[in-house]
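User:
Can I borrow your eye for a moment on a structure tokenisation matter? Would you put together a sequence-and-structure record for a protein of your own picking? Please set it down just below, with no commentary around it:
AI:
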Amino acid sequence: MNRISGLVVTPLTIIALLGLVSCSNPPVSAGPFTYYVSADGDDSANGLNPESAWKTLDRASTQQLKPGDTLVLTGNDSLAGELKLDSTDAGDPTKPVRITSDDSFPSIVAENSAGIAVVDTSGVTIEDLAITVASDDSEDAPDGIRLYASEESGQHSSVVIRNVHIAGAYNGIAVSSDSVGDGFDEVSIESVEISDSIRNGIIIHGPDAPDYGHSNLHISDSIVSGTTGISGLETNSGSGIVIGSVQDAVIERNEAFDNGRLSDANEGPIGIWTYNSTRVLIRNNRSHDNKSQLSDGGGFGFDISTTDSTLESNYSYNNAGPGFLLIAHQGGGSTGGNIVRYNASIGDSSLNAYHGGISVIGGFSEGDYVSQIEDTIIHHNTVFPAPSSGAAALKLRGNIVGLSIHHNILDTSAGDAPSVAAVDVTDDSEISIVANQLAVNPYTSTPVFDWNGARSQTATQAESLLHNSFDNFEYTPIYPGGFEVSTVLETIAWTQPVAVSADVPEENTPSTSDLAGNPVEEPNPYVGAINPETSDQNARRQNTFERR
């Protein structure tokens, strides 16, 4: 028998004391924790269950969210304000902090800089919630979600934004870095829906190439629509998805449409485009019905200093500007080492004839440094520009060095424009145009080529203008009657597959499938974006699109 401070301790006494301690003082968990925020909550509560939820996003922002923690927005009423995570929160890419909501929660009503701001930290997942903005379309409106790397904060990694709806923000999602060495790695934006933004739907930006701020970006299965743009703004606005200051990115299975209606700047907008980036793959996307009051308003683009990147198996249709734009201009670096393949442009460049369905514009700068389009390949595309504007199927301008254009369908037969037009392209541009199907209006005297003002009525005559061009041929026009999605697909399906015996360049990174998903092997002798292999090729095309 033991005696402690006058208490006689027996085995039964010890058991009783342990039981008493266990019942009255439960051990505190080391986490991770799940916290709740509700408009019906109380900021003085502990936030650890729906019944003791915090009331405001400000209170949630003051909580240090450690790796593995979850924050749930709950209740039947929206929460106004800004939820901010900074360098004291999260930080472990292997144990992300999760921000989410339950089924009853309507939305965050964003105030201040953003609905959700992630600043100088890693390991954050934002999913299954909505963000709206109550604004008067002013430039003071907040972003929906903002990722920001401040100066000398370094690289931050592993941020996922998934199944989020954002409406009315200045930028729907903005990922930014202001200085060299700072930025985000491994950012994934999946299944988001962004509507009615003011400046851009999704924008990634940072230092100019080759000092890329961000890396390993993935944007997939998302819809961006109704971005208005800003009237009177001198720089571009109104784009759907803008990728800048990024190395290594995949942009796939997204749709951008009805963007840019208020934009009246001398540049942009574009549905989906890149600039100051390298090794970007843009594939299997749709971009359509994008607008501009003055310039561009196109489907897809590789802008200044985009290098070693690929546009593959994308649909572009009904855009004011070009379906596919490759550009370099004064004040920016050259754009080159890029590939544009197995895409379709139907009814694009309706605004004017400055662009074509595919538009390649080198810089017009002079002096010690000349920005230019260089070492670019455009092959196996199908192009039917809008007939009303007089736009060519392929338009070339300015400084171009090393451009291979082969096995495309370039059809302007519904309007009065050449299949290929060049303006201010120098004789030493090293352009080759090989094995393309060409069609112009058979009832007019429209030339097949208009090369710096010199016109060729036939593809054969055009070979005298371009000594590196051969085996191009004319064919019976098949221009569609409309540009709805079903017609776009049917038009491509109608196109008769033609194999050309010309030597086909082998690509460094050959595509494995055409626009319809049929397997192809490089070098591929067929023309156009779809190259089926069966004897009943046209039927196979139609069946393919019926399945899609």
Summary: The chain has five helices and 44 strands. The longest strand covers residues 155-167. Confidence is low (pLDDT under 50) at residues 1-27, 534-548.
